[in-house]
User: What shape does this take?
Amino acid sequence: MEVKRRKAFVVDEQVWKVLVNSTQPVGAYQIANMLPKVSATQVYRVLERLVSSGKARRIAAGNAFVVASSKTDAIVICRKCGEFELLECPEAIEGLERHCDGRSFQAKQIFLEMIGTCRDCRG
Ligand SMILES: [Zn+2]
Assistant: This one.
């Protein structure tokens, strides 16, 4: 039992390291490919835990994951180089919440994802 638990912890750590060091969103299979002894299913389980604890986000574009925090409101992703940046933009979120209130829609979570071209790629 103890050994099993430690193994799970090691996998968690490995997946987390990949995510933290990645400048681009990464998919579960990509992560599994980087970790020789870890299966994609294991990676998925870890990612699900990270997402539910707010430490990572699943992005809609490309079914990939990025590291995040509770302060992360938005992510911008460059469609040319694939690099991403996490943004805090509470005023935008507040605006959307007001919009939802106006329609009597109770938003549980708002997360913005923007696809575009970064400064480097725009040249
Ligand atoms: Zn770029």
Observations:
- Strands lie at 56-59, 64-67, 74-78, 84-87, 112-116.
